[in-house]
Amino acid sequence: MTTSISANALPQDGIDVRRAELVSLMKRFAPGYGVHATPIKNLHLIRSDHPTEDLHTVHKPGLCVIVEGRKEVRLAAESYVYDPLNYLVVSVTLPLAGKVIEASPDRPYLCLRLDIDPAQICRLIADVSPIGVPGVKTTGRGLFLDRIDAPLLDAVLRLLRLLETPDDIATLAPLAQQEIFYRLLRGEQGQRLHEIAIPDTQTHRVSRAIEWLNNHYAEPLSIENLAQMINLSTSALHHRFKSVTAMSPLQYQKQLRLQEARRLLLLENSDVSSIGYKMGYESPSQFSREYSRLFGASPSKDIARLRAQAI
Known about the structure:
By secondary structure, this protein is an alpha+beta fold. Helices cover 47% and strands 20% of the residues. It comes from Pseudomonas lini.
């Protein structure tokens, strides 16, 4: 399944001017390829001058806004494609694959990522409770696309402008971030963030299961124990977990194991078998088979290719 969202549906009044300013700021503070940290600790700027191959990552909760270029993000078998001035929200930690599909030196891919703290969302919900969030009940993924509207765009632009006045960041950046999260909550998809942040909803309990798996992915997994830990039946855990992540808990754990194995193989001199055992696999053949299925090549060939690209 592919979900696409395009800037063509946006009203153009004032959009082009604001977008041009965003592009200028992004090029200034992200002058080259890669992920650039900023003095605003939750804000990162991402740039690529060319299309890229798949990058597999465990994506923490965050807001991503594309300013220039186009990207495809994949969650399990689902594909999400979006382009300028549209945004993607990841509301729970998810193993994703993504690639830039439109970029050039003249028109580089430019994207900003703002980390989302569910505790901050919870406090904001409490503060705005008389207003509330849209009451549309959603059972969708912990990832969604939407079009940016003028109030959200203005809040994002104000946050980026603070990079030009560093002395203002400590006081004004939290206010700009709070407005951004408020706009997300008040948007059509706001209920999804609401369900993740509010304790004792089934979706929030699934987020606790996700957190546990991210901290214990190399350990044997008992679905019964995990369900008991978050106070859900095993059937409810399976249903809600797959609804949020597009995977079963076992499939999710496998993704975490393989992505961590790949990272360790790149960083360490350990052999493939040792890394496989470290990640909880019972045999090198099982590890190699599942690694190849996810990354398209055996561990040794995949790591050799990645190291050659880095030279």
